[in-house]
Design brief:
Layout lengths: L2 H11 L6 H10 L3 E6 L2 E5 L5 E4 L1 E2 L2 E2 L1 H14 L5
Antiparallel strand pairs: 1-2, 2-3, 4-5
């Protein structure tokens, strides 16, 4: 299992337990591109040009933002989980 798949499995199992660094790394591995940052809000763009603003909760990713990412990822991959 490669790094992307391990992070994806971790995100699906426990969205609130993913570190913010791992979350951004997962987004990058899945083809998302960091566009800009304003304050603590970082704007990422998906391969299908959908945007997702994210910001850390301490050193963790916010679980609702991880779920939004997973929902968009699944939609772009034709519903595959």
């Amino acid at each position: 299992m490669d790094k992307a798949e391990k992070l994806l499995e971790e995100a699906r199992d426990n969205p609130g337990g993913l570190s913010f660094t791992d979350f951004e790394h997962l987004m990058e591995l899945k083809g998302w591109v960091f566009k800009r940052q304003r304050g603590s809000h970082r704007l990422w763009r998906s391969p299908a040009s959908q945007t997702l603003p994210v910001q850390p909760r301490g050193n963790k990713a916010k679980n609702y933002q991880v779920r939004q990412f997973l929902k968009q990822l699944d939609a772009e991959s034709g519903g595959k989980k």
